[in-house]
Sequence to fold (268 residues):
Amino acid sequence: MHYDPIKRSVGSVFNKSPFLRKLFYHLLDLLLLRAWHVHKELKLWRKDKGDHINILDAGAGFGQHTFYLSGMNPNWKILAVDVKQEQVEDCNQFFEKIGRANVKFEVADLTKYVSENEYDLALSVDVMEHILEDVQVFKNICSSLKPGGMLLISTPSDQGGSDVQGDGETSFIEEHVRDGYNIKEIEQKILSSGFSRVEARYSYGSPGKISWKLSMKYPIVMLGMSKLFFIILPFYYLVTYPFAFVLNYFDTVTSHTTGTGLIVKAWK
Fold:
């Protein structure tokens, strides 16, 4: 399935005004389990941080996580980069409209982008599964972090990430260059890239797998079949979201021996 056209179609509906764009971000934060896990880690990270913080959103996409970070502290300076020119221009216009002067979006290729010892935090949410030269990206981010700086990654695992359940199956999202990381593999790749310490854990355990199907997979499949599903989408979520909310909560507060997602933290 070509996921990007569906994302653009949904995004265009909410991009008609800053209010709708903000609503879209908040809805994504409620629906997407990865946002729950990322927000949990960001809240832990911020506890001993002051105002003079530089952040790199490495692969910003729609700007959802940049919006969240810029709301955590208006004094933090955030550079959000992406390879897609139209998304960068769109995000710069939106963040200027809402007065988030601490945010700037730029076009950049993560396999080439380096800014030596610049950032206290680098965030990479559902990005690395799209990049073949992942070790080079890890090296570039390590060089761009200040000593003691942290990289936070959310990415699919090889335990069914991208909805791949066995050999011969293809990813639910065709834009992925890998179906998911083995947890030891990504730890080793990151350590070989210059980081001094890495911690990885599974997300999307048993509760998260069900929630993802209810809140993401089934709606996307139906939208891919017909745009008429836009009409009944609000009613679908009215019925299913209370169940997804409870499942998301349990996925974030419990540990998992396996899962279809990974949350990885690495320190320079």
Summary: Residues 125 and 154 are 5 Å apart (CA to CA). The two ends are 37 Å apart (CA to CA). The first helix runs from residue 3 to 14. The longest strand covers residues 145-156.
